[in-house]
Amino acid sequence: MTLCLIIGVSVQAQLKVGSNSNIGIGTDPTSTEKFKLTGNSFFNGNIGIGTTPTTTERLKVNGTSMLNGDILMYPISGMGFKVIKFSTGYFPDIVVNEAALVPIGSSSYLGRSDSRFAAIYTSNLYYGSLYQLSDKNVKKNIKPLDVKKANKLNLIKVYTYDMDEKLYDSINNETIRNISIEEGKDQAGVLAQELMDIYPKLVKQDPDSKLYTVNYVGLVPYLLQAVQDLSKAMDAQTQEMQTLKTELAYYQNNCCSNNGKAPKKSTGMDNGNMGQANLSDVVTAARLDQNMPNPFSQETRIGYFIPKDAKTAALFIYDLQGKQLKHIAINSQGEGSTNILGREFKAGMYLYTLVIDNELVDTKRMILTE
After folding, report:
1. Buried b (16+ CB within 10 A) or exposed e, 256-272
2. Least confident of 102-106, 225-229, 279-283
3. Which of these, 65, 284, 291, 361, has the minimum number of CB atoms within 10 Å of its CB?
């Protein structure tokens, strides 16, 4: 054990050296710590404990050490930081005053995965990437998010505001304080007290200042759910609009086939070959299946059912602009199907419609991929 003071050391405590050369100041040395200090102390000079001191480090320690008490360090003239309640294995509270914690090399860490800071307080935080622990192996009671909770997003009021200048009174450096005040202007966000009534888990009160804080990152899952719900609603509306557009295109293409009048709807087969039939019953009994597979890239199958009393039946394929791309006549009743080849169309979304006796039965979507 080597204790070397380059400039000088003033220690107002009892110094004890153990049989293993470990040192205790204000306390008994142990067999595990090279240097154990209890009480308030002041060091001025470069020190090496368990190693040779250098000209650049004020304090260089080799081996496990324990420091218990308030410690004031001055690594650079006029600057420093104060460590309060500095104990073995963790740093419960660190106060930085006009100083910078500068990492040595690009692989330095502040804390570790097995030794975390309980809380970090700062006015401004600049970072390249921010990751939040989300591993499924550390989660329990996993279940889909309640849609009703996402719907509460509409209750959140968003404001613009300036942060109160009093918030920065504790910053001694005038330049840094002015920068913080300027950056606190023209902000946008929510009020914690209001958000607490909607999502109480996203609001927390600081036990010391009694001020409320908001977990804005915690809003992301609710936003994702809301976007997904909105997307589903828009898809449903788009499908409905495209169905109406297809129906309109069909009637526009057939409205003038009878001297400018809409097609006449017969109530039965001509000459009584297949007997009398109520047209609505025929349409109601018909069925159009979803194509399988969907989406598809090479070939897909469209199934259907044509009632025995139907006179005519056909499949029509449209693009999303309502343009008819293909007409497939169906000449048999009962269960049936037709295959659609991907090479006939470009990749995209299409609508297909079953028409029986000049009446639309159903319209569905199919997606062709490259």
Report:
1. eeeeeeeeeeeeeeeee
2. 102-106
3. 284
Euclidean distance between CA atoms 7 and 279, whole angstroms: 107
**Under DSSP, is residue 189 helix (H, G, I), strand (E, B) or coil?**
strand
Residue type at 107 in one-letter notation: S
Give the Cα separation of 86 and 93 in Å (integer).
Answer: 8
b/e sequence 308-331, b meaning 16+ C-beta within 10 Å: ebbbebebbbbbeebeeeeeeebe
Query: Which is more confidently placed, 105 or 208?
Result: 208
- Report how many helices (DSSP H) and strands (DSSP E) the chain contains, helices first: 5, 23
Half-sphere exposure of 254 toward its Cβ, with a 13 Å CA cutoff?
17
Locus of tokens 């999502």: 199
Q: DSSP labels for 131-147?
A: -----GGG--S--PPPH
Statement: residue 201 has pLDDT above 80: yes
**Helix, strand, coil content of the chain in percent (nearest 5):** 25, 30, 45
| Residue located via tokens 């968003």 | 158
For residues 294 and 334, is the Cβ–Cβ distance under 8 A?
Answer: no
Task: Give the pLDDT confidence score for residue 199 in this predicted structure.
Answer: 93
DSSP sequence for 198-228: H-GGGEEE-TTT--EEE-GGGGHHHHHHHHH
Who wins on pLDDT, 77 or 187?
187
**Position 97 pLDDT exceeds 80:** no
Q: Do the bridges between strand 287-288 and strand 324-330 make them parallel or antiparallel, or are there none, so unpaired?
A: unpaired
Q: Over the stretch 267-324, which tens digit does the pLDDT of each residue have?
A: 333 333 333 344 467 888 899 999 999 999 999 999 999 998 888 999 999 988 888 8
